[in-house]
Amino acid sequence: MTAKPTEALSYNIDEGMLDKIGEEFSTTNVVSHFAEVVAGKAGNEMEKVAQEVFGKYGMELAKRSLELGEKHTDATYEAMKEAIAKTGYMYWPLVPQRFLEIAYLSVMPIQTLKVLQNNADKLAYRLVLGDCAIYDSLKEKTSAEVAKLLPCRHGCITLCETILRGLKIDGVKIEMEATMPKNGRCIFAASKV
Known about the structure:
Layout: H1 15-24, H2 27-38, H3 43-71, H4 75-87, H5 91-107, E1 114-118, E2 122-128, H6 133-141, H7 144-148, H8 153-166, E3 172-178, H9 180-183, E4 185-192
Antiparallel strand pairs: 1-2, 2-4, 3-4
Helix pairs in contact: 1-5, 2-3, 2-6, 3-5, 3-8, 4-5, 5-8
């Protein structure tokens, strides 16, 4: 949706859109489903289920964030698109960051996505202990041992991959540079290769 000249847009991401996505992609529901499916399963089986359950969650969350993020535009995004069209620069990493923010702000108890690096080479962001509703819920609904395996990482990695694919951005490698159990935070980095 591009604003009409007489239509004033907010510079903020549409809160109603974030609420709608949050309702559709309940972190509690995905963790409860995962916990039911993995009950009594061993490591390899659990990993396969994690890839399926959280991978699907991340993919669908990305698709919905892309869809509604385009439909519910804001003045910041419109200015960004205009600048990119004029200069031909910074589609990567500015546009992917917008859609990652939409996804995370919709489902996590955070006000901003903590972006650590955003330049022509790399987009990196983090979630710290308390920021990730899925990790916290995994500890409650499964066990600390299951949470330490980070089955939820498949959701975050697939979220990044799907957003990049949806925006037709190639030549980017997604890596997890830190983890909650080891470092007290997850850091995801998308780097140009």
